[in-house]
Amino acid sequence: MLKTYQLEASVFDKQDTKPKHVKSLTLSDIKRLPKFEMDATMQCAGNRRKEMSQVKEVKGLSWNCGSISTAKWTGARLTDILKAMGFKDEDFNKKYIQFEGLDVDPTGTPYGSSIAMEKALDPNQCIMVAYEMNGEPVPADHGFPLRLIIPGVVGARNVKWLKKIVLSDEESHSHWQRKDYKCFNPSVDFNTCDFDTAYAVQETPVQSVISEPSASSSISADDGYVTVRGYAFSGGGRGIARVDLSLDGGETWLNAELDNNGQSPYKSWRGHSGGHSTHP
Q1: Which among 36, 66, 123, 239 would be 20 to 30 A from 267, CA to CA?
Q2: Where is the Moybdenum cofactor oxidoreductase dimerisation domain (predicted)?
């Protein structure tokens, strides 16, 4: 597969019947571009869906709080790849950039996603195409040979097994961009809602999770104290400034101690993990 693999990119106008300015790079070509490394936390849009269903049943895998992880990604910046392909300035006037993977659904339609072009071109967003994860080739389950990494954005937009990039004035027509991963108020019926009236979910919201002790578990305080641990994460590169903990239903609050991950609070792609607080 690697001998024939190529990452393809093109420009598509609605009035055209097929893409134009089709370009491609091999995996070796991409590895010759300036190497970019980044630690980034990725979270599924459905993380903690199990808790959501305790309020009102929602569709999808019943994730608890573990559908999130941090890895070191190595690859090339998306902007460097587009420049190496020789696209012209006017090509970047398109509204969106679409991404397509090698995986297909039962109808034969490839998985896809898209983000705004202005986000894709912003150097502060650190968007990259990765060929290594934690110092090794990206594992098959995580998107070998190339995976798109858009830090601070829901996992659904970080396309695995990346095969194609399209510059377009339209969002991806993928089911997962148009007919899923959108938010509605609790009174809306998922089976009859009009997905075209809502925006596709992109950046993840701020949240914090108590992972220890686990929910409904029995605990003891042999020395008179209990240590509470968990994680806090916010999408869009926004760092976590503070985590507050209440032991009395919100009447009073205490500050948790955060592990400093050494990143700027305005450009933080890695979640704070191991934050803890010890209380009598």
Answers
A1: 66
A2: 199-266
